[in-house]
Amino acid sequence: MAGSEAAWQAANAGVPVVIHEMRPQTGTFAHQTGNLAEMVCSNSFRSDDDEQNAVGLLHWEMRAADGLIMAMADRHRLPAGGALAVDREAFAEAVTAALRAHPGIRVEPGEIDHLPQSGQWIIATGPLTSASLGAAIAAETGEDRLAFFDAIAPIVHADSIDMEKAWFQSRYDKGETEEERRAYLNCPMGRDQYEAFIDALLAAEKTEFHEGETAGYFDGCLPIEVMAERGRETLRHGPMKPVGLTNPHAPDVKAHAIVQLRRDNALGTLFNIVGFQTKMKYGAQTDVFKMIPGLENARFARLGGIHRNTFLNSPTLLDAQMRLRSRPNIRFAGQVTGVEGYVESAAMGLIAGRMAAAEILGQPLPDVPQDSAMGALIHHITGGAEAKTFQPMNVNFGLFRPLDGLRGGRRGRKERYKGYTDRAKAAWTEWLAQAHAPA
C-alpha cells in the first residue's frame, strides 16, 4: 500500500520512479500473488465517516491529495454499511495496472536485500520485511528488530452458509443504500451456544511460537482465542457484540452473541468472518467455527493464520521527513514505520512520496500540519510517541492536539470529533495549496 502510493505521488510530481517488488519471485507467508497493494488481513478500510471518525478523515485527506489507493478503493468498493470495503483482487489488479501504465514509473522484479548507499529510496516493505533486508536494517540502526504477531481471519464460501439461520443486516441498519444496510451476514448464538463456543476456543490447539519469540500482539488484530483468554465475556463485547441487529427468523429473541461476516469480493461468493483473526491450527479452526449457527456446513476458501511482523522504533530512528537519521537518502513508509492498517500505511506512503520528490526537485515542502490526520500520524511515529513503549498505532483522535472550549467525555464526543475533523480539513487544504504553489 505505502510503496504503491509513494510511487504514484512521486511520479505525478514529475520524478521518475522505479518500483522494486520481490513478489512473486520471493513470496511471503500471507501474500498469494505478485500484484502490488495486495490485501491479506482484511478487505476493509474501516469507517468512511470523515466527520466523526479519524480513519474516515484520513480517507478524506488522501482523496483530496489525489491518492491512488483511495481512488481504486472507491472504484472497487463493496457494500459495508458505513465502512469502506473493497473487492481485494480487483482492487490490487487495478492498482498494479495503474502503476504499470504510468509513463513515469517502471516496475522491476526482484528483491532488494541491502540498504543502498546512493540515490533516493523509500523502503515500504510492510510488516513482512524479508529476513535479509531486515537484517541489513538491524545492522545499520544498531537496534534489534521489534516484532508483534499478526493474525488473519478465515474466509467462507457464501453458498455454504445456512440462510435459514443467518441474515443480512448492517449494525443499526447503517448505510445510505439498501445494499449497504444489508452488507453483513449475521449468525446468532444463544447463551449456551456461546459458552460452548468459548470452551472449544480455549481448548483448541494453537500455533506454537519458535524458541526466543514472544507474542506481542497489536491490540487491533488480536486473535479471538487471545481475547477469550482475557475473559469469557470479552468476545461478546467485541467482535461478537449482539447490539443493533434484529434476527428476522426470530424477531422476539435477543441473541446472546452474534458473529458477523462481511462480503469479501464483488460477486458476493466469499465472506470473511469479521474480527476472527486466529492462530488456531487448521483442523481446530474448522471444528470450532462450524459450531457457529449457520456455519455448520461451511466450506473455507482460506483458513486463518499467524505471522511475524516487523517495524522500526521510528521515534529514535526517523527524522520529521521520514528519513533514516543515519542514512538520509533512505526514507521509510507504511507499516514498517509503526503505523497500523491499510489506510494509515498508504497515507504514510503518500507523504513519503511527496517528500522524496520535493527533495529531488529542490522544492522542500512545508511541514505537514500536526492538526491534520496525516500530521498527527507523522508526529506520533517521528517523535510524539514514547520510544521505550512504541507499538504500532492506528490513526485515532487521541493523537490530535486538544481543542479548547469543547466539552470532554462521552457526552461531548460528537461535537469534539466534528471540531477535530473541521480543523484538520482546513489545515490539510491549506497545506495542499502551499505544496502545489510554485517555488
If you had to describe this structure to a student in words, what would you say it looks like?
This protein has 439 residues and is α+β, with helices and mostly antiparallel strands. It has two domains: 267 residues, FAD/NAD(P)-binding domain (3-Layer(bba) Sandwich), CATH 3.50.50.60; 157 residues, Elongation Factor Tu (Ef-tu), domain 3 (Beta Barrel). Helix content is 33%, strand content 16%. The protein contains 13 helices and 16 strands. The strands form five sheets. A six-stranded antiparallel β-sheet has the order 9-10-11-12-8-13. A three-stranded antiparallel β-sheet has the order 2-4-3. A hairpin with a 6-residue loop joins strand 11 and strand 12. The radius of gyration is 22 Å and the shape is globular. The protein starts with a helix and ends with a helix. About 1% of the residues have low confidence.
